[in-house]
Amino acid sequence: KVPRSIHEKARDVARDIAKTDAYVRSRRERKKIEMLFAHLKRILRLDRLRLRGPLGARDEFLLAATAQNLRKLAKLIPIPALQPA
Description:
It is built from three helices and no strands. By secondary structure, it is an all-alpha fold. It has one domain. The chain is flat. The protein starts with 7 loop residues before the first helix and ends in a 9-residue tail after the last helix.
């Protein structure tokens, strides 16, 4: 005998959903957002908010997101080649 879990029906439904194009697309988009939040938490040290209240949290998050966007923009600017003297 091979026992089947009582939750196997729900797992089958989840597996069917995972095969759809909409799920694959949403997973790809979700990954982009999750990577941005991981960068905010790890690199910009936004793992803990230091300002008080909802307005302070909003301001701190906006500053961190602005810094993240400025880093992205800086990577888009081409570096001029050095010319020999």
